[in-house]
Specification:
Elements: H1 3-11, E1 20-21, E2 33-38, H2 46-62, E3 65-70, H3 85-99, E4 106-110, H4 115-119, H5 121-125, H6 130-135, H7 137-145, H8 153-167, E5 173-176, H9 181-197, E6 211-214, H10 242-250, H11 268-281, H12 285-292, H13 296-322, H14 326-354
Helix pairs in contact: 3-13, 3-14, 8-9, 10-13, 11-12, 11-13
Bound molecules: tryptophan.
Length: 358
C-alpha cells in the first residue's frame, strides 16, 4: 500500500462516540485507570512523543493511575525474530523515563513477564470470529507493509491479545493514535461479549468498557510525507543527537513550490515539516509557515532543525544521564512486573470463577 492509501485505511475507522481527546475534561483523575504501550522494536520517535508520550506524562501528573506496557510479544507479529529484544525493551523504558514517566507513579512492565495477562487470551479468542479478525484495517495495513513471506497467526490474533493488555488491569482509558482505534473496538467487543456471557452471580460485569484517549495533536507524518514509523526510516528518534536530527531533516522530501504553506492534504511533505516545527515551538502551523514565507525548503528545514533540537535538549540530556544506569532500567521493569502480576492474577481468578473453571 502507498502511504496515501495507508492514511485512508486507518482513517476509515472512526472514533467511537465515547472516545475522548486529550483536551476533554477527565473528571476525577483517581476514577480512571489508564493503560497504553509500545512495541519494543527500536527507539521512540517524535511522532510518538507528540502523539502520545507527552499526554501520558500529563495524565500521570494529573494523578491518573497509569500502566505502561512494553508489548514484547507483539514484536513477532510481522517479523520472525524479535531482534535485540532486551536492548530495545530497556531503551523503551529509557525513553519513557526521559519523557517524564515516573516509575513511582506509573507501572512500567513487559507483558511477557505477566503470565496471567497472557492466559486471558484464550477465553478472549473464543469471543471473536475469524471474519472479524481478518477485517481489522490496522492488521491489513501491517500485512501490506510486512516483509514476511507468510502472514502468521499472531498477526490476526494480536488485537485480541491487546484486549487482554487493556482488560487485565480493567483500564477504562487507552491513550493511542488513530491507527489503534480498530484495536480499541476489539477490546470493547471482547469486554462486552465476555460480560454478557459470563456475568457475576449478582449480575455485576467483570470488565469495564475501555475508551480511546486520542491525542489533540494532528498526526505527524514522517520525513517522506507518509506515516512516521521506525521501520520506514522516515523518523527522528527522541534520543537522536543534534547532528543526526539535522541530517534526517535535511534529507526530508519537499516540493518545488518556494512559498511555504500549511496544507496537509495538498502538500503532505512540506506540511509535515511545518507541523513538526510548530509542535516544538507550541505555535500554530499556519503562523510558522507564514513566517518562513518565500524562504523555500532550505529555510523551512533550518527552522525545523533548530526547533527540534532546542525543544528536546532537556529531554535528551536527561536521557543520556539515565542511560548510564542499565541496572536501574531493569529494576523499573521488575517492580512494574510485580505490580502488574498481582493485578493480572486477581483478574484471571475472577475470570476463571465466572466461567465456572473453579
Ligand atoms: N499496538 C500498539 C502499537 O503498535 C502497542 C500496544 C500493545 C498497545 N498493547 C497495547 C497500545 C495496549 C495500547 C494498549 O503501538
Amino acid at each position: 500500500m502507498t502511504p496515501a492509501a495507508t492514511a485512508t485505511a486507518t482513517a476509515t475507522t472512526a472514533a467511537d462516540a465515547s472516545d475522548l481527546t486529550a483536551t476533554d475534561p477527565l473528571g476525577d483523575p483517581s476514577s480512571h485507570r489508564v493503560l497504553t504501550g509500545d512495541r519494543p522494536t527500536g527507539p521512540l520517535h517524535l511522532g510518538h512523543y507528540f502523539g502520545t508520550l507527552r499526554n501520558r506524562v500529563r495524565l500521570q501528573d494529573q494523578g491518573v493511575e497509569m500502566f505502561v506496557l512494553v508489548a514484547d510479544y507483539q514484536v513477532i507479529t510481522d517479523r520472525d525474530i524479535a531482534d535485540r529484544l532486551a536492548e530495545h525493551t530497556e531503551n523503551l523504558v529509557l525513553d519513557y523515563l526521559a519523557a517524564g514517566l515516573d516509575p513511582e507513579r506509573a507501572t512500567i512492565f513487559a507483558h511477557s513477564a505477566v503470565p496471567a495477562l497472557n492466559q486471558l487470551l484464550l477465553p478472549f479468542l473464543s469471543l471473536v470470529s475469524v471474519a472479524e479478525l481478518s477485517r481489522n484495517p490496522t492488521v491489513k495495513d501491517e500485512i501490506a507493509h510486512s516483509s514476511q513471506a507468510a502472514v502468521n497467526g499472531l498477526m490476526f490474533t494480536y488485537p485480541v491479545h491487546q484486549a487482554a493488555d487493556i482488560l487485565f488491569c480493567k483500564a477504562d482509558l487507552v491513550p493511542v493514535g488513530q491507527d489503534q482505534l480498530p484495536h480499541l473496538e476489539v477490546a470493547r467487543t471482547v469486554a462486552r461479549r465476555f460480560n454478557e456471557r459470563y456475568p457475576h452471580a449478582d449480575g455485576r460485569a467483570v470488565f469495564p468498557r475501555p475508551r480511546a484517549l486520542l491525542s489533540d495533536a494532528p498526526m505527524l507524518p514522517g520525513t517522506d510525507g507518509g506515516k512516521m514509523s521506525k521501520s520506514r526510516g522516515n523518523a527522528v528518534a527522541l534520543g537522536a543527537d543534534e547532528d543526526t536530527t539535522a541530517r534526517i531533516i535535511r534529507g526530508a522530501k519537499t516540493d518545488a513550490d518556494r512559498r511555504i504553506t500549511y496544507d496537509p492534504s495538498a502538500r503532505p511533505e512540506v506540511s509535515g515539516l511545518v507541523l513538526l516545527a510548530a509542535l516544538c515551538q507550541e505555535r500554530d502551523p499556519e503562523a510558522v509557515a507564514e513566517e518562513i514565507g518565500d524562504g523555500g525548503a532550505a529555510a523551512l528545514k533550518r527552522t525545523v532543525i533548530e526547533s527540534v533540537n532546542e525543544h528536546f535538549r532537556p529531554l535528551r540530556a536527561r536521557r543520556a544521564e539515565l542511560a548510564t544506569d542499565r541496572g536501574h532500567l531493569r529494576q523499573v521493569l521488575r517492580d512494574g512486573a510485580e505490580r502488574a502480576n498481582a493485578i493480572a492474577d486477581a483478574t484471571l481468578a475472577e475470570v476463571r470463577e465466572v466461567m465456572g473453571a473453579i
